Description:
Elements: H1 19-33, H2 35-54, H3 58-67, H4 69-84, H5 102-122, H6 124-127, H7 130-137, H8 143-148, H9 150-170, H10 172-178, H11 183-196, H12 198-224, H13 228-262
Amino acid sequence: MATPAAGTVIPFVRHDARRGMFWLRRAYAMFRAAPLRWLLLIGVYYGIVALAELGPFPALGRLAACIFKPVFAVGFLAAAWAQERGGKPALADLFRGFRSNLWALLPLGIVFLVGMTFAIAATTVVDDGALVALISVGEEPSEEVMTSGRLQLAMLFGIACALPTLLALWFAPALVVFHDVGALTALGASLRAALANWRAVAVFGLAILFYGGIVPALGGTLVRLVDEPVGRVLAVALLLPYMLVFLGTFQIADYVAYRDVFHADEPPSAGGDQAG
Length: 276
């Protein structure tokens, strides 16, 4: 599956802002072509994460989930790669990262863990640790922090601090596996490509925020207006399927964006469905 590069410099192309929505539309078209198979992969992956975090050592489980995140990301990349070439996403694809460049993928997980830990810890300068307490031990913020807007500001500040790590890691698993490069080379190439495509990345990020954050939040608010028993049924019946479709599309979008940025000269294989 890996295609060794001739050198450490990995070429990429720059796209305009409209490409960000194309990545999402194309990913949704691929999900729609094999929804049950993608839902199986999503369900198994998040089931593994939940079991790890709810086990006898939840802290170690969360640590492992962070470190192995890029390894499982390769599984979704492999499933999308197979589908684009006329195959079908298979459960075995989810574990492909454990057989492909594992020792280069694990450092990416450590970078993710360190970067996210730093981003969350940095929010203490904004809200005196309220967000950290909420995430780590579930401690509810004080009324003063909630009404002052400091918690919301801390969240935005944390996202800003996490952005360099997220951009460096976005394409890195695909570069490690498909280009057969080391972790540092993959991180550098991913960050450069993401920054060069900042317009498309910004549109993509805003779309993810809208479909993955605002829409579910609005739906949840509307559901809470209904009587409690009925509201819970509606939440499960409407929001859960929606979020599963969103998560499946989001996972596929990583592969679509990677292909479009690093292999723009290669048309999709005949087996892949086209998105308008």
